[in-house]
Amino acid sequence: MDKVVRGYVHVGDAVSPRDNEKLVNKLAELEGVSIVVVATRNPYDMNDLPPVATYLCSYENTPYYMNAAAGVLLGKVIPEGKLPVSISDTYPLGWSGHQDYVNN
User: Fold this and answer.
1) Distance of alpha carbon 38 from alpha carbon 69, whole angstroms
2) How far apart are CA 3 and CA 77, in angstroms?
3) What is the pLDDT of residues 36-89, one digit of tens each?
4) pLDDT of residue 64
């Protein structure tokens, strides 16, 4: 199975949430592809995108945080963070996918 990783940074009008939604939807149409979305600035981006199996929030796009995200994607780092905000009813303040990550 191939994996597609999509980093997401919304800066002004350079890339709209609608453009990212279209891209993720197109990628989801591919058979045998697992999609991973990495939010490099804010976790609310998840609300603008269609559901994906793996969504990683790094909260920063500096080299330190990008290296940490790469470590998670490569299986060298286990994500242990908790949401500092509520994104939705499904992902409330303090939610962590750590347990799901370890079990899958």
Assistant:
1) 8
2) 18
3) 888 887 788 777 777 777 888 888 888 898 899 889 888 898 888 888 889 888
4) 92
Non-local (6+) Cβ contacts of 31 within 8 A are none
Contact 53, 42 (CB under 8 A): no
Number of Cβ within a 10 Å radius of residue 45: 20
Q: What is the pTM of this model?
A: 0.71
Sign of the C-alpha dihedral computed for residues 92, 97, 98 and 102 taken in this order: positive
C-alpha count within 13 angstroms, C-beta hemisphere, residue 87 = 19
DSSP string for the chain = -EEEEEEE---TTSS-HHHHHHHHHHHHTSTTEEEEEEESS-GGGGGGS---SEEEE-S--SHHHHHHHHHHHTTSS------SS--SSSS-TT---HHHHHH-
pLDDT band with cut points at 50, 70 and 90 for residue 93? very high
